[in-house]
Every structure is written in structure tokens, then in C-alpha cells.
Amino acid sequence: MNRNKTIIKTILLLLITVIVYYSVVPFFGDYDMNLEDLKPDANLNSKDLVYSYSLNELQSNSSFNGKIIEVTGKVKEVSSLNKRNTVILFGKTKQSGIICDIHPSQADKLKSIKINQEVTIKGICKGFLKDVILLNCYIDTKIDD
Amino acid sequence: MTKFLLLVLLSFFVVDVTSAQNNFIARQGQISFFSYASVENIEAQNNQVLSILDISNQKIAVSMLMRAFVFKKDLMYEHFNESYIESDIYPKATFEGDIIDFDSNATNQIKIIEGDLNIHGITKKAAIKATITKNENAYLITGEFIVLVKDFDIKIPPVLTSNIAKSITLKFTFQYQPYEE
Fold first, then answer.
1. Structure confidence at residue A92 (pLDDT)
2. A127 in contact with B, Cβ within 8 Å
3. Nearest CA in chain A to B180
4. CB-side exposure of B62: number of CA atoms within 13 Å?
5. What pairs with residue B95 in β-bridges?
6. Would you say B26 and B176 are in contact if contact means Cβ atoms under 8 Å apart?
7. SS3 call for B155
């Protein structure tokens, strides 16, 4: 009887430990996560994403903000301003595009990226100023390598 | 007639170039903040701050997404956006101001920028000292200023008051390029 109680207590303790670990520990983890293996919530063309925000920012915020978005578009600029690696994709007009802040693990891939090359980039959408902002971006170089 | 048309086209071109040279844009401005706290110092950086500089009217405008601040820990990010800044309700912070006695030709100058700072839906007057450097056809504006948390109606639970400083130091760097509209 006592043995059974001990087993049940041990299982409960293990269960609680696992639940606490998976619900609390992520909050104390590094914010700088890599999205490489995560499935995107939406796939879009870069021009369509920018157009959506310029048409209705509020609605686009509720659709895309905080979500993992995969965009395909042509490279307008590659920048290392502020010691950050950034790829800017063309939008529908000259004034607006997508600013993709690249995850440090992707730095090597940047070397092979050329202006006007079509790339697919996955990142967390943060909203829209004059450009759509994507952070923690992962580059898929399989397209147009 | 042909000469007249050419003159009209040329004048449009001149007006367009002049207008373009009056406006400068920084799409990847940087704002960072630092808050000293007894448990753990809190710092974050936003590298995608938008700013437009109008040198003819000596005006500057800044807009940033609060959710674009990057923290070291997820928990800090969650607290900042969900509890303090309420980013879903107030997703952006803005500043619009005038650069007092700005000389658009000076290569290096320290000026006061006076204007309205809006954070968490509250607008306050601010006077910010900034260093402005001109390099060929580009401008660099840097500086820092202090924001008082209570000025912007940011509510901190009593249990956490010892963890959050009453004032926060903000640093900014904007590299402006000519803005082609």
C-alpha cells in the first residue's frame, strides 16, 4: 500500500515538474529564437503583405502581428546598419517594403544574396511603419540559389 | 513653344530635386533603453525606428513599434508589452518636434529638439539635446534623454516597484538618407 502511494507521489511530482518546466521556463529563455523549424502562420508575396498593411493597417495587424510570416520577394537592399544584418524586400511601391532583421545564425547565407534576387524569408511580424517589420528572420535560400 | 515647354519641364525637375533634398529618412533608426533595477537591469533595443527629417522647416518626426523592442529574456518582453506599455492598445510611440536654430549646412552641431513625445497614449512636452552631424548628403543624429515612468501613466504593480526604476534612459541614433518620394 505504502509502495503504491510512493509511486503515485513520484509520478505526480514528475508530472508537475514537466508542466512547470514547459510553461514557465520559456519565459526565462533567450528571446532570440530561431524559426528555422517552425511552421509559418501565413505565406505571402512581399508586395501583397505591404499592400495589405498600406490598405488597412488595423486589420492587417490583427491578421499578422506576432505571427510567423513567410514572405517571398525580391531583395531591394542588404544592410548591416546598427550592427544588425537586415534584408529589405521590395513592396508594391518605391516608398514601402519589408525590413527583415536576420537571425545571427543566418549570417553566412547573406553573403550569397544579391540585389533583385528572389528569396523566401520567415520571420515574426511586428507591424508597419513605412515598411513592414519582421524580426528573427530565417532565410530560405533554396529559391533562386 | 518647344523652348517654353522645355523650360516648364526643367522648372518641375528643379522643384522636385529641391523638395527631395529637403526631406531625409531613417528607416532603421535605433532606440535603446536602460533601466537600473535591484534584481536585474532591464535593457532593450529597437533597430527599426522610422524618422523623417525636414531640413527646410527644421522639423523631425519619429515613429516606432513597441513590439519591435528586443529584450534578453522573453519574460521582460512579455511584461513590457502586456503589463506596462499595453502594446495591443498603444502599438506605437511617436515624437514630433522642432530643431531649435538648426543649421542644415553645419557639419557638426549640438541642438535642442523641442516637441511632443507620445508613449502609452500620453503626450508630454520634451526638450532633447542631440548631436547632429552632416556628411555629404546625409545626416546623423544621436543623443540620449530620460523619461519618467509616471509621466506616461505606466502602472507598475506594488510588488514589482522595487524591480523597475522610476526613470529610464533612452539613447537614439538615426542615420538619414535623402528621401525620394
1. 87
2. yes
3. A95
4. 28
5. B62, B117
6. yes
7. coil
What is the pTM for the complete model shown? 0.81
Q: Is B181 on the interface with A (CB under 8 A)?
A: yes
Q: Does residue B115 carry a pLDDT above 70?
A: yes
Which residue among B25, B65, B72 sits closest to A127, beta carbon to beta carbon? Answer: B65
Chain A positions touching B180 (Cβ under 8 A) are: 94
Instruction: Share the mean pLDDT of chain B.
Output: 87
Cell digits for B110?
Answer: 549640438
C-alpha distance from A87 to closest chain B C-alpha (Å): 11
DSSP string for A72-90: EEEEEEEE-GGG--EEEEE
Number of C-beta neighbours around residue B48 at 10 A? 28
Across residues B137-163, what is the average pLDDT? 87
Distance CA B71, CA B19 (A): 39
Handedness of CA B20, B21, B27, B33 (dihedral sign): negative
Residues 134-163 of B with CB under 8 A from A: none
A25: part of which helix (H) or strand (E)? helix A2-28
User: Helix axis angle, A46-55 relative to A57-64, nearest 10°?
Assistant: 130
Please give, rounded to a whole number of angstroms, the shortest distance from the CA of A99 to a CA of chain B: 8
Which of B24, B28, B174 has the highest number of chain A CBs within 10 A, making it the mutation to test binding with A? Answer: B28
Task: For Cα atoms B32, B166, B142, give the angle at the middle one, nearest 5 degrees.
Answer: 25
> From the DSSP assignment, how many helices (H) and strands (E) are in chain A?
4, 6
